[in-house]
Design brief:
The protein is α/β, with parallel strands linked by helices. Helices cover 36% and strands 22% of the residues. Bound molecules: zinc ion.
Length: 436
């Protein structure tokens, strides 16, 4: 028994190396390569891939006939994109109430059915060139971790999932209106924090279940209870001790101030952040994940709820506020991370609806390459994974996509034209495949 344990420990503690698998060499000829770290397009590059990772990047050269070459010289090659804010185990109709649907999910949808449906939604991201997602809760009790593991072991296809497990939250979670005697249902979806000591335990429970990051709700509006600075500080301290980053859902400016004081690494949504809070975030290099949607998304949404945009006066205010905040954040130097937060059925696949984040930032005035950096390198930094994902560089995973068109002059339709998708060295979509 002891010997088995020792062997296990030796294997487990041995420095982690990426699985090499079959050492097949593949070379991609890229007409342009987007270098996400320097945020520029480099012409005529060859990417050497060995197994699941990138070995080297060189200039064009004559290749021997026996080498396996994927010719993307007519295309722009990018690192696989990252959606930093997803909920693949949750889906509601546009006209459904979030709390009602949460209760229905928790009481009338089995974990097995929920996971299978989540698997299908997850897979749809690959088709759009999104090869990694950060799944931030509303995923039952660690169903996101299970989905991640099933994808990593190759049982099903899907993007890399970085799973947060149940969101750490004050009493009630985000599910408003549940009576006192039924609050135990909330424990099936959120990890309710009762004290600073309990907050530390919650992080340890998540570590024990192998989550990849910690997501908290600094506030829970319209539920009024919120986490205290002391509770959030305890979460951050414990998470950082395990090398996990902490990102905080914040609707109010107040809760964002508290979360920043507690030392979180990122703020999700931040709809009401004031200029001085953005200044503080820039100073402390705290990531912002803006999750607004574009005008065309809102038009579809209005149609689905049987309204028209003219009858939705608030949409104009919503769009201009989002734009103003994003532009101010960029001016001040807040690191921006791309995230969709799309969990509504929108007549297209979940992956497709999530690409709306790119359109939203573009409409708000963000420059094309800056948007790409937010969806690759900066997003990976938010997870401390910038050597592994969101980059085409030696030792990173071979998560590589290609688009047709001119990124800088025709961003939206070019990003709509993903023609090649590789994840971990495996090709999921190739030029010449029938169109989507
Ligand atoms: Zn969310």
């Amino acid at each position: 028994m002891t010997r088995v344990l020792v062997i296990f420990l030796l294997i487990f503690l041995y420095p982690h190396t990426k699985s090499i698998g079959q050492q097949s060499d593949v070379f991609i000829k890229a007409g342009f390569l987007y270098d996400s770290k320097s945020n520029q397009l480099l012409p005529n590059k060859i990417i050497h891939i060995q197994g699941s990772t990138i070995k080297s990047i060189t200039g064009f050269r004559k290749m021997d006939k026996d080498k396996k070459v994927i010719d993307l010289s007519d295309y722009t090659v990018l690192p696989g994109l990252i959606d930093a804010h997803t909920h693949v185990l949750f889906s509601q109709e546009a006209n459904e109430d979030f709390a009602d649907h949460s209760i229905q999910t928790l009481t009338m949808e089995s974990d097995a059915l929920r996971a299978l449906r989540g698997a299908k939604r997850a897979e749809s991201y690959l088709e759009e060139g999104i090869t990694s997602i950060k799944d931030l809760g509303n995923s039952g009790l660690y169903l996101d971790v299970a989905l991640r593991d099933a994808i990593n072991e190759g049982t099903i296809d899907g993007p890399r999932i970085f799973a947060a497990g149940p969101i750490l939250s004050a009493v009630g979670g985000q599910v408003y209106g549940v009576t006192h005697q039924h609050q135990n249902i909330i424990d099936l979806e959120y990890r309710i924090i009762k004290s600073s000591e309990d907050a530390k335990n919650a992080v340890r429970e998540h570590v024990n279940q192998n989550v990849d990051l910690i997501k908290i709700c600094a506030d829970n509006l319209p539920n009024k209870a919120f986490l205290t600075i002391e509770e959030m500080s305890a979460i951050v301290e414990m998470a950082h001790a395990y090398d996990l980053t902490v990102t905080a859902h914040c609707i109010t400016n107040e809760s964002a101030r508290n979360a920043i004081e507690a030392g979180v690494d990122g703020i999700e949504h931040g709809f009401n952040l004031t200029d001085s809070t953005l200044t503080l975030m820039a100073k402390k290099k705290i990531f912002l994940v803006p999750t607004e949607n574009s005008r065309s998304y809102m038009e579809t949404y209005a149609k689905l709820i049987g309204d028209d945009l003219d009858g939705m006066d608030w949409v104009n205010g919503y769009i201009s506020r989002g734009k103003k905040r994003l532009m101010t954040a960029i001016e001040k130097g807040v690191p921006i991370v791309a995230g969709s937060d799309n969990y509504t059925k929108m007549e297209v696949s979940r992956g497709k609806s999530s690409t709306d984040m790119l359109r939203t930032y573009f409409e708000a005035g963000m420059k094309p390459l800056d948007i790409l950096q937010s969806a690759t390198y900066i997003s990976a930094m938010h997870l401390n994974k910038e050597k592994d994902i969101g980059t085409i560089s030696p030792m990173a995973y071979a998560d590589i996509i290609a688009v047709k068109g001119n990124l800088e002059n025709d961003f939206i339709s070019t990003m709509d034209n993903v023609v090649f998708v590789m994840k971990g060295g495996k090709v999921y979509r190739n030029i010449g495949d029938s169109s989507k």
